[in-house]
Every structure is written in structure tokens, then in C-alpha cells.
Amino acid sequence: MNSVKVGLLGFGTVGQGIATILTRNADEITRRTGRRVDVTTAAVRNVAKAEAAASAAGVDITITDDAMSVVNNPDVDIVCEVMGGEQPALDLCLTALAHGKHVITANKALVAMHGNTLFAAAQKYKVMFGFEPAVAGGIPVIKAVREGLAANRIESLAGIINGTGNFILTAMTDQGRDFDDVLDEAQALGYAEADPSFDVDGIDAAHKLTILASIAFGMPLKFDELMIEGIRDIKQEDVVHANELGYAVKHLGIARRRDTDTGPAVELRVHPTLIPQRQLLANVHGVMNAVLVEGDAVGQTLYYGPGAGSEPTGSAAVADITDMVRAMGSDPSHQVPPLAFQADALQDLPVLKPDDIECGYYLRITAEDKPGVMADIAGIFGRHNISLEAILQKEPDAINAADETTATLLPIVLLSHKVREGEMRAAIAEVEALPCVPSPVTLLRVETL
Amino acid sequence: MNSVKVGLLGFGTVGQGIATILTRNADEITRRTGRRVDVTTAAVRNVAKAEAAASAAGVDITITDDAMSVVNNPDVDIVCEVMGGEQPALDLCLTALAHGKHVITANKALVAMHGNTLFAAAQKYKVMFGFEPAVAGGIPVIKAVREGLAANRIESLAGIINGTGNFILTAMTDQGRDFDDVLDEAQALGYAEADPSFDVDGIDAAHKLTILASIAFGMPLKFDELMIEGIRDIKQEDVVHANELGYAVKHLGIARRRDTDTGPAVELRVHPTLIPQRQLLANVHGVMNAVLVEGDAVGQTLYYGPGAGSEPTGSAAVADITDMVRAMGSDPSHQVPPLAFQADALQDLPVLKPDDIECGYYLRITAEDKPGVMADIAGIFGRHNISLEAILQKEPDAINAADETTATLLPIVLLSHKVREGEMRAAIAEVEALPCVPSPVTLLRVETL
Q1: Distance CA B51, CA B41 (A)
Q2: Which residues from chain B sit within 8 angstroms of residue A25, using beta carbons?
Q3: I need a surface site. Which of A49, A151, B35, B362 has the fewest CB within 10 A?
Q4: B189 touching A, CB under 8 A?
């Protein structure tokens, strides 16, 4: 049987990983699939640089600067899009699909924002579209949720799906350092980009959560409706207070089914979260990723591994390639649909607005050290029917205490039980209006998982 | 399209879980596969009892005591063997395969001991044979290793794959209790059988490791060649010493590739193991299971979840069912081979003998408290080229110290670097021959993973 030919769009970190794996493990992969798989070509902007990289990696491929020549190439069976960005990636993928090529992408932004279009095109042209490398790097979590947990009605998932953010929070926790300081190190180590906003503002995690939620619940991709918060505003003191209370601070993507008065809906949110230290997710350190999935039959399962990197992400792409090599030529009815559910069986679940999500809350209130302050604050939460699980009243803030012209300020840390966010926001507005509370309240969300 | 009909062999815990899931999640599963799946019949020994269980679960199926009528039934597409034991399970599965039915089993002993025969029969009759529920309950680890990591040359795997054993070791660690005491509780809770030997002597874990190793390395199943040790002899004091040294004691199944002078080989072993407390596997508590897999491209990934139970194991069986429903009618060349590699591409890797495995060692030596003892012991390890990583010399044993007729006895705890087990055994024999060492040396293996 002829070998399967793979063409790459892009030959950066991930593209080189794919080519290296397919070259080094060629025999192993042939033993698995029964067919040889060869990377034959890659389209890049800088041909000379890519040729040097291919040569250094011992990979024998044709480099071109004409991406259309790859997606039009009649000898290419599978196109791997590893160039990133929205355009021209989208047009190239659509062209490849229209030409009957199977397409794999590592581009989470592309899938999160244009997946619905891409899946429809794949269905129309009866080809396969894979995106395992777009979520959680080398962890085969798309396959696990889509196929391994197919028996389940997935109830929720929660994941550490941005390695840069987890590296920063781990260092802030273990080494007592501040956000800015650790971000500098992450940039020096190459974990964070010069413009780190994609990672630290939660956009990257939101792309991945969008995809995970769709395959978990069988719903269209709805990136625009996610609630997104990053880790830029996490203060060292909040990490310390959380630890004292038995919690770790992790940046999570959370998707959860909710039955509301108006019918089934979902929460889709990305934000820093306090989780119990004994939880396995709390012990996922550094750049590693992990996704905890709750199904109605299986209960909780967790998938852990490297969320980025050349060969880890390449591993996910090559897993998609081997699936495609096996399924090639079979009727699409025998193949796993991209979003786990048949295209005509997706359910258009509404995404709850931020005010309607429900979770526990960590609040840090800075208040003047005066009689009656605690009673005023507690009274507000009581009137809003918010019950408190823990109160940590700290020593007066050293800096403020030294300033004799102002009243001494006390940090008060509260943990609430689960409550609707709108209710909590209303209570906080009242707290902030108290004369003895001079500055905004810090809010973090709490999940017991 | 007609619905797919599933027949069960057995209607105990797992059988009821499968029927319950397929009934409760019927719509969800149809949305995934595009076809309805119905459990229609179950064969059991006690019909009245099974009918009562089916009725209680709200499951509408025909119960029979004639298992052959299920495997011969022309209306059954998929047979799920959840009766356990070697026979008649083996004959029934072979008969079902010969009748063109796809077969799924939750029976780890059956697969570990007769998998080679069963896979050959499935290939001969061009049907599918699934066994996801046979390993690690609800964790889709067979799929992860076989498909999700298909890009990789798997180097090693290490798993907590017996929930009963992990429950016992967790309680010994967290509560300072002895083995016998916790075993009694595990039996009272229903985690351990009246005859607990399958679990606590490592047989059950060995069955699962046999299967995992074969799909990881693409080699035939070789249950008879495993090195197997259980947890019956684990002493509370060793758990305590391990913790002091920064290690947790876990019962692991370990499979590892080794390049030897005579060519490629594998280590396949099941035994109590000291692993660093910060390792994620060390934080898998109670009856939960987890498998850590190391691939050459992806690095380390870990899969965690419930290793047993009605619906968790049922979840794995129904995942196999949905895979089969999708692939039914496709050419076998489009399907994933049972052992991940094409049947004609398996590699008959030799299994190393116990003396030839390599790892670190934890030794507890009880020696008389006399001058020169430490020098004698250290000298022996030095002559065997065994370097020591840590030495923990404990206070004299209280009981012995009180007995004035004998010399005071000291427990000496040693951690060695990685060494061949044969060499370590030879050194221990010499230590045990010293006049100042009156009792056998306690040996546990250490893995840094």
C-alpha cells in the first residue's frame, strides 16, 4: 500500500516536532497502522531558516514559501496546520478540506473561533478534521472526552490548560514571589511570549475551554460567550491567605451543566480559582496541564501531562494522523464526529451570564480597625442570604499601621458557601459603600471540585 | 437504522452498570453514535435474583440461565462478558466470536491469560474484541495508550491498578494502622473479597499490567513471566521510615523497556514501591487508580480515576460499545488492532528475570548495637559497587532494649541508588550472614519515576 503523505503548514516548534516524530518513529508507526506515513513538504515564510531546521533535525522534506501549493498538492493526503493565527490559516484549511484532504490543526484560536465552519466543511467534503494538538498539548484529552467517556453524560470539567499561567502561580506559591517578578522569569525561559496577554489574561485557556466544553456537552463552539479572567491581578498575599485556609490558587477553565428555571444551560468560565490543596489538580505544578472530568457514570477522571512543547504537541498531532490513516477510505458514518456528537444532534445550550454562575467565593476586604466593622460586614452578607464558611481576621497591615495619619487598616478574609455571583456582587457593592472600607474588595472564586 | 443489540454474560455489579448506563443515557448515546443501542438479554445462574435486580434498576431485559443462547442469538450484535473466571467465560467468548459477534470483556484474568487466543479468533472471524473495562475500571487508559499515544515509542508505565491494595496502603500511611487491621476494614466495606489474595498478593494487578504492557510495547501477553509481590508483608514501620525519607509506599505495576547486551527486553513487575511524595502518583489515595505513562515524544502523561465499581467499569464497557457501533460494518483494516499494533507486527520481547531488573532499594537491617557494625555493612555494599543514597540509623528498638539478656538491636535503614537486583540480593545475603545481624533484611524497591 502507498505511504500516506503529510504536508505541513508551518515549520516552527510544533511542525518540527511532528516531522521529527514521524521520522524517528516511522517503523513503530507503521507497525501500528500497517502503512508508512511520510512528511513530504512544509510551507513557511522563511525557506532558508526552515531548511536549516529540517537539516538539523535530520528530516528530509521539501520546503516551500507557497502554502497554497501544499493544500493543492494532489500527493498530500493530510495537511497539518501549525502556523497559528486566524488568517491565512482558516482559508488554507478550508481550501485543503475542499480539495479532499484531511486536516489537523494545533491552532486553538482557529478551532475555538471558526470550528463550526471548519467542521461543516469537513462534513461536506467527507474528510476528517482533527484538533487533538489544539488542547492541552500532549495529553490525549480530546480523545478521552470524545471517545473514552462516550458512555457518560458529562456533568462538568475543570482544567489547568495554560502552562504559562500555571508556571507563574506555582512559583508565586512555592517561592513567595510576585506576579511581575515570575512573569519576567517565564519570559526569559521562553514559557511566555514578549506580549504575554494571551496566556496571562486567559484568552488561550478560553480557546481551549471552548473546545473542551463543546465536545463534552455536544454543543456548538461559543467562544464569544465565555467569562474570562486572567491572573495578572493575583496578589502574593491572596496566595498566602488561600494556603492558610487549605487551598491552592490555580487558573482553571471550568465548564458545567446547570439546570435552570428556563431549562438546561452551561457555565463556561476561565478564572483564578481556589481549590482544596488535597485535590490532585492542586498538585499539578509548573508548566504541566491537567483536566478533571466528571461524568454521570464514571465519576471523576483526570488527565495530566505536558500542555505544550515541540514533541508533546507533535505527539498529539501524530495521534490524530494515525487515527486518520486507519480510518482513511472508510465511510464517514464509521468515523468519530469532530464534536463527539453527530452534527445534526448538537444541542444549542445557552451559556449563563456571569451574574448567574454559582460557586464559592474568597473575599479580601480591607477595613478600618474600628468597633462594629465586622458586624456591619457580616450583616450585609446575612441580608443577602450568603453564608460564610470561614473568616480569617489578620493582623493590622504593617505598612498602614506605620502611617499614623490614617486609621489602622485590617485585612479581613472571608470564604463563602456557594452563591449566585449576582447576589455576591450586590453584597460586595454594599460592603464597598461602607465608610470604614476605603478600597475595593478583592474577589476570587472557590471550587471544591 | 436498526438498533444495536447487546447481550450480557453475567448480571452482577458490572453487568447492571452497563444496563443502567445504556438505559439512562440512551438518548445521549444515540446522539453520539447515530444509532440506538439496547441491552436485550443477560445470562446468569440465578434468574430470579437477576430479574429482581433488573426490575429494581428499571432495566427491561430478558434474563436466561442459558449462556449459550446469548452467544448463539442471531439478534445479538455485541456480547459483553462480565461473569468473570476463566471458564466457561473463555469458551463463551470464543463461541460468540465464531458466530460473528463483537465481544467486550471486563475480565482481566481472561485477557491476561487467554488474550492471544481471543485476539486471533477475533481476527479470524473479522469481528472486534474490546477490553477497556478489564484495566483500571472507568479510566480510558487502554484507549489512551493504544490510540492517544500512538505517536510514541512507549518507554515505561507505572500504575496503581488495584484499588483494594491502594486503600490499604493509604490507610496504613494516613492513620498509622497495620496491614491486618486495615484489611479487616476493607473487607467490611466490600472493597476486599473474603479471600483477599487476588488483590493483596498482586495477582489482579499483574493481570492488568500484563495487558497494559502488551499494548504499550506491541508484544504478546506474557502473564506467566511477571515478577509479582503483594503488600501482605508491608510493616507499619517501613511506611513510617519511607515517609521520613520523603517517599510514599505504593503498590505499583511497572513495565519498562530495557536495552540489554542481548538486545531489547522488558521488565514486567508488580510490587510495593517507594516513590517520591511529590510525585502525582503518590497523591492517588484510597481506592482510586492511576497510570503514569512515559513516551519518547510526549514525556510523562497520567490517567486517574475510579478503578472499579458498577458504573465506572460499565462506563468503560459502554465506551467500547460506542466504538464498536461506529466501526460496525467497516473493513477490519480501518479498525484499531486489539494490541495497538498490527497482529503480524508484534515483537516478542523477552521478559527480564527478577535478578536482572534494575531499580533503587530500601533496606531495613536489624543489627546489634556494637562498634564496627556499620563499617561491616557499608563494606559489603562497597564491595558490590552499590552506592548508598541515604542512611537512617534509628534509636534502639524499645522492645529489645528492655530485654537485658540480649544485645540491643538497632534498625538501620538504607536507600541505594539504582542497581541490578541480583547484585543487591548477593550483598544482602552477605549482610544476613554477619553474626551481628540476627534476622532477615527487609527489602522494598524504590522508583523515582
Answers
A1: 11
A2: 151-153, 296-297
A3: A49
A4: no
Structure ipTM: 0.96
Quote the minimal CA–CA distance from B268 to chain A in Å. Answer: 21
The grid coordinates listed for B39 are 441491552
pLDDT, tens digit, 9 for 90 and up, residues A52-62: 999 999 999 99
Q: What CA–CA distances, in Å, run from B158 to B167, B261, B386?
A: 18, 24, 25
pLDDT, tens digit (0-9, with 9 covering 90-100), for A46-100:
999 999 999 999 999 999 999 999 999 999 999 999 999 999 999 999 999 999 9
Q: Do B302 and A303 touch (CB under 8 A)?
A: yes
Instruction: Check if A341 contacts B (Cβ < 8 Å).
Output: yes
Distance, CA of A328 to CA of A335 (rounded, Å):
9
| Contact (CB<8Å) B301/A333 | no
Query: Residues 280..319 of A with a Cβ closer than 8 Å to B: which?
Result: 280, 283-284, 295-306, 309, 311-312, 314-319
pLDDT mean over A373-396: 91
Nearest of A215, A193, A227, A184 to residue A354 by alpha carbon: A227
Beta bridge partners of B253: B159, B270
Q: CB distance from A144 to chain B under 8 Å? A: yes
- For residue B111, the one-letter residue type is V
Q: Please, which residues bridge with residue A207 across strands?
A: none
Residues near A337 by beta carbon (within 8 Å), at least 6 away in sequence: A343, B32
| Residues of chain A contacting B30 with CB distance shorter than 8 Å | 345
> How many distinct helices (H) and strands (E) make up chain B?
16, 16
Q: Give the span between the Cα atoms of A413 and B213, in whole angstroms.
A: 50
Structural domains in chain A, CATH included, are: 4-135+311-345 (3.40.50.720), 141-306 (3.30.360.10), 356-446 (3.30.70.260)
- List, for residues A303-319, the tens digit of each pLDDT value: 999 999 999 999 999 99
**Does residue A208 carry a catalytic annotation?**
yes
pLDDT value at position B396?
Answer: 67
pTM of the model: 0.96
Q: Which residues of B touch A301 (CB under 8 A)?
A: 138-140, 303-306
Residues with Cβ within 8 Å of B136's Cβ and at least 6 positions away in sequence, in order, are B159, B161, B208, B289, B291, B303, B305, B307
